[in-house]
Amino acid sequence: MNHNAKSIRPFIGARDFQISRKFYQDLGFEETVLAHNFSVFKTGEIAFYLQDYYDKNWIENTMIFLEVDDVERYYNDLAALNLTNKYGVKLTPIRYEEWGSECFLHDPSGVLWHFGKFK
Question: Boundaries of each Glyoxalase/fosfomycin resistance/dioxygenase domain copy (predicted)?
């Protein structure tokens, strides 16, 4: 089976759509509004959809891994944004594993982002 895939775009929900929109803008994603309750956020060729829909069980079990070129720089950039105070989110320091390294950030709704680099 030959997919010839060009991208993959997960759908995530938001407890408070407007706060989540601002959060992702602060992270440097470019937003394109598709409807009053639905946007796509992009960085380079990578994108995801944010929708004004919240289901606690779904959101709190959603994880996204974004591979970055430099976890230490990325973590420092995240820390400098002061997201914990601004949004009440949790930023977890870098973990070093045998496969690579990663840090973690929960968004305002509870989606868990992994920002990592493979060895």
Answer: 12-115
**pLDDT (tens digit, 9 = 90+) per residue, 64-89?**
999 999 999 999 999 999 999 999 99
CB distance 49 to 11 below 8 Å = yes
Both tokens of 80, joined, read 């400098």
Supply the DSSP string of the chain, one letter for each residue. ----------EEE-SSHHHHHHHHHHTTPEEEEEETTEEEEEETTEEEEEES---HHHHTT-EEEEE-S-HHHHHHHHHHTTHHHHH---EEEEEE-SSEEEEEEE-TT--EEEEEEE-
Instruction: Count other C-beta atoms under 10 Å from residue 12's C-beta.
Output: 20
Write the pLDDT tens digit of every residue in 1-57.
888 888 999 999 999 999 999 999 999 999 999 999 999 999 999 999 999 999 999
Residues in the chain: 119
Does the global pTM surpass 0.90? yes
Rounded Cα distance between 117 and 35, Å, is 34
